[in-house]
Write a structure and sequence with these properties.
- The strands form two sheets. This protein has a five-stranded antiparallel β-sheet with strand order 1-5-6-7-4. Strands 2-3 form a two-stranded antiparallel sheet.
- The chain is built from four helices and seven strands; from the N terminus they run αβαααββββββ.
- The protein has a single domain, classed as Roll (Thiol Ester Dehydrase, Chain A).
- The protein is elongated.
- A hairpin with a 5-residue loop joins strand 6 and strand 7.
- It is of the alpha+beta class.
- It starts with a helix and ends in a 5-residue tail after the last strand.
- Helices cover 26% and strands 37% of the residues.
């Protein structure tokens, strides 16, 4: 992709994404075995997170990495935009997408439990480009709710897309 097209696409995205809803949602079914396996990867031994299913275990907070990254890739990979009257994908080259970090907010949230059906929605936060290398950065503001419409986590995810990827 030539440098002028990269600049044009960057300008379009910065001007049009910030504050916009990301269409659709992603769904994740929570399984007991996945919760326990995920906790054990981090060396967690507390029965609250790795005990028997009938004892009412809950997800450790690290489990949010599992559903957040999974959902965001699903939402972003199918995202279509209209630029210059033509539909185009947000990601032109998925290999150029980089995950640049997550910040979790658990205030007012309920625990994730086996059997939960999570629904993940998001909107764009700040969007900017570093002019020196034309890397596009974006905040994605994500809320995750369970099947009872209870909030289980608010996440701010930072994504970076290298030139040619957007």
């Amino acid at each position: 992709m030539d440098p002028e097209e990269v600049k044009k696409n960057a300008k379009f995205l910065v001007e049009n994404l910030a504050g916009a809803e990301i269409p659709g949602s992603a769904k994740v079914s929570v399984r007991y075995k996945t919760l326990v396996s995920f906790a054990k990867v981090y060396g967690i031994t507390d029965p609250k997170y790795v005990g028997a299913e009938e004892d009412g275990i809950v997800a450790c907070h690290a489990f949010a990495n599992h559903f957040t990254v999974k959902a965001l890739y699903k939402l972003l990979l199918g995202l279509k935009l209209t630029q210059d009257g033509k539909e185009r994908p947000f990601l032109i080259n998925t290999a150029k997408l980089l995950h640049a970090g997550n910040k979790y907010n658990w205030e007012g949230c309920v625990d994730v439990k086996p059997g939960d059906k999570l629904k993940i929605r998001g909107k764009w936060g700040k969007v900017w480009v570093v002019e020196k290398n034309m890397i596009l950065f974006a905040e994605l503001l994500v809320d995750v709710k369970n099947q009872n419409d209870e909030l289980v986590c608010n996440v701010t995810t930072n994504a970076a897309v290298r030139p040619g990827g957007y």
